[in-house]
Each structure stands twice: as structure tokens, then as C-alpha cells.
Amino acid sequence: MTTTEGNVHGLDELGQEVLWSSRGQQVMMQWEKQYMELCVDALAIQPSDRVLEIGFGLAYSASHIQTFRPRSHTVIECDRETLQRAQQFAAAHRGVEIVAGTWQQQLHTLGQFDCIFFDDYPLPELEFLLAKDSRWHVFLDVVLEHCANGARVSGYLAREVDLQRPGCRVAVTTVQVGVPENCNYFPHKAALVPVITVVDSLVAGRGAGAGVDSLAFLPRASKKFKRAFENAS
After folding, report:
1. How many whole angstroms separate alpha carbon 189 and alpha carbon 16?
2. Which residues form a coiled coil (predicted)?
């Protein structure tokens, strides 16, 4: 199931790679590549690991994940244009599976993972589903049910949020980032590299699920979610 379909991949006025939304907003830029790689490094991926990636973007995180040759690499992506590039990527790399849709729609259909990289794109039309909670808060409420014992979760984090969960250990590192002047979505000189380690999957799984009622795979919310994405595209 695809959702949005308006992303455009190209170069900015400085000749740097960029991803634009259908509204002309910057979604991802080339300066993020090094930061994404640091977040992936923090996962300490092993060849036996099952990796889940939320959001393909410009393939920076996906490409770096593949350097560790994980047992499996599942990517959830909802944008139609980006999906085409993701599918080409999967065809060129062993063990990569592309799941079309949003994590809110598709995560409950998947199994267990050892490493999870989270970098979704927040569509304004869907922010009402988050209420006062951050995307990270709602994501952890759901994804911890899919984490094996010892699993690690990392991803894009611009500001400090509460990542503490029962059965988990949290570490956050601040790193400097070189953001160009033409970037209009990241006004900071530093970013955060979070690592949530599941030390007890049974406890973490029991503590998850608090944000499930706001997600798309409940019947009523599913229709609302689908309409919101249709309007967004």
C-alpha cells in the first residue's frame, strides 16, 4: 500500500543531493549523510541481526546498513517515488525487503528485529494522531513489541525527548553537524544520536502498546489515516 507520491529527488543550487516534498519542502539533504551513518554505527549491527529501517530517503542509512551485511534488512517506505528507488536498491543488495506503506500501517504485520533505524517524515496532515506526544514516543510504544532481547533502536533526533521505557537502557550522544545555509528545516549546529537497548524484551513488550489506539491499524483510525494520506498526496 503506497501513500504519498510527491517526493522529488535532485540537486540543490550548491550541487548537493536533496529530496523535496510535493509542496517544495526540503525533506532530506546531503549534509545528513554523515549523521545518518553515525546513527547506524550506534546500532552495532552484526551479521546475524535482523534490521528494520523506517524511511528510505536518500539511501544514506540503507547503504551504510548494508556495509555490515545483516541477515535481513526490511525497509518500510510510504512515498511512491522513493519506493521506486528503494526497490532498485533492494534488487542490488542481498536480503533487502521493501514494505510499501507507513510504519503505522505496516509494523504490526512484521515480526521481531535486532536493530531498528527510525527516520520517518512527519506529514502535517497526520500530526493530529500524535496529540501531545512526539513521533519517537508513539513509535517506541509500538516498536518495542517487535524487539528481540538485546535489540537496539536509533535514528534521527533533533531535540531531547523522553526515550525511557521499562526494560530498556537509553544513551544519547551529541554530535556536531555541518548544516548548510540553504537548509531551512534544521536550525541547529548539533544533533543527537540515541540508542535504546532492550535489556529485557518481556518487560519492554509489556510496557509497549500505550500509543496503539492512535494508530492506523485500528478500524476507525485506519479510515482517518487513509483519508489524510490521500489528501496529502
Report:
1. 19
2. none
Q: Specify if 157 maps to a domain.
A: yes
The answer, as to whether pTM is greater than 0.70, is yes
pLDDT of amino acid 52: 99
Indicate the range of 25-29, 104-108, 197-201, 220-224 predicted with least confidence. 220-224
Question: Where residue 213 falls among pLDDT bands split at 50, 70, 90?
Answer: very low
Q: Which of 79-83, 140-144, 153-157, 217-221 has the lowest mean pLDDT?
A: 217-221
pLDDT band at 16 (very low <50, low <70, confident <90, very high): confident
The total domain count for the chain is 1
Per-residue pLDDT, 38 = 98
Question: Is position 3 within any domain?
Answer: no
Q: How far is CA 127 from CA 122, 134, 135, 215, 228, in A?
A: 7, 9, 9, 11, 10
1 is a domain residue: no
Name which of 28, 91, 96, 32 is nearest 62 in CA terms: 96
Cα angle 109, 218, 113; round to 5: 25
User: What is the CB-side half-sphere exposure of residue 67 using CA atoms within 13 A?
Assistant: 10
